[in-house]
Design a protein that fits this description.
Layout (H helix, E strand, L loop, with lengths): L1 H34 L31 E5 L2 E9 L2 E7 L4 E4 L2
Antiparallel strand pairs: 1-2, 2-3, 3-4
């Protein structure tokens, strides 16, 4: 029964992270359409495109956050699905989801 609870919670948290990631990516794309460039930080999306930057997942410790970096005119976006591996990514240039490991 405990294993079922753990696996069910993991599936739920992954769904939350996926939905929140899609909201953040959509906000970044809307920011780009409005300003001609991507935001330097996710906080720049608030309050025009998001009410607040959501956590990737909810957990007992500190929240699992999205990682966003803007380098040389190109944004990078990912979060850890299963720490320390399993990073899910979004490529803004190709507009495709992927995994790093």
């Amino acid at each position: 029964m405990t294993l079922g609870i753990v696996l069910g919670n993991d599936a739920f948290q992954r769904g939350v992270a996926d939905a929140n990631a899609r909201r953040v990516v959509a906000a970044c794309e809307a920011y780009h359409a409005a300003h001609g460039d991507f935001p330097r930080k996710l906080d720049e999306l608030v309050p025009e495109f998001l009410d607040s930057v959501p956590p990737a997942k909810y957990c007992l410790g500190p929240p699992s956050l999205f990682f966003y970096a803007y380098n040389q005119g190109r944004p990078a976006f990912f979060w850890q699905v299963v720490p320390p591996h399993g990073r899910r990514t979004y490529d803004f240039e190709s507009r495709r989801w992927g995994h790093l490991d």
